[in-house]
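pasting for ref
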Amino acid sequence: MIRHGLAAIFCFVSFNLSCGGDDGPKNGDADSDVDTDSDSDTATDTGTDSDTDVDTDSDTGEECPEVDRECDLLTGDGCAAGLRCGYWWEAAGEGTPEVRCLEAGAAGIGDSCSVVPQRCGGFANDCAETAECLEPRDGVGAQCLHYCDGAGTCEDGSPCGATIPWSDLSVCIAGDDCNPATQEGCDDDEGCYMVTDGVDWTIQCVLFEPKPGSIGTTGAPCFFVEHCAPGWQCATFFGGEAVCRPVCSKADGICPPSTGDCQVVVDLPEYGICLQ
């Protein structure tokens, strides 16, 4: 399950505006009324004047970007230079967000991210480009992940994953640095599996959750990859029932006894499945 990572950060920044002017005598006028004038608009003004333009008030005093609600989340098109398309909340994580152009954050694709207050009001993620801030899998902190809308639509060749709760779009699945043949690189309660959207493949650590009464080894019925024990893969061949089969490495081609030969059957040529 992919969940939204939300961490609102509130900050308040004060700044001073220099105002007031020259209140000294003009053209040699020695009128004592001028000499004793104690006008409160002298250089002691703290800049708290209520006439300050709240529409442009910000940490930097810069004007707020023009909002464009017609931008494209998949392509990022429709925003002015330097802006990115994304979801924006009026209140942090509450209600249905709007699609609009936003100022870029600092988090790159795959980097940790959160939902933060925007300079000109509201809340949005702090990704540097058009991406969603979501957990790639349970137990992993939220990351910036590209949007996608179906199998084979991720530009980096990764699978297109689960639908975003508040959107009809999905995110590209973030792969993990693990080995499905040796089962190195995942936590103790997880397995390293080959996952797909039906077109593209990657490897990912997934929590092992066998079907009731099953240990998820050779021949065990399955429907999802997590139904098979770490080191086995849920596979269907020639229209038959989906069952768990051992995963092997093409580097050595070793399969457990009586499980067949190591054969590459997915678009991950360094790994295979033991088939008879």
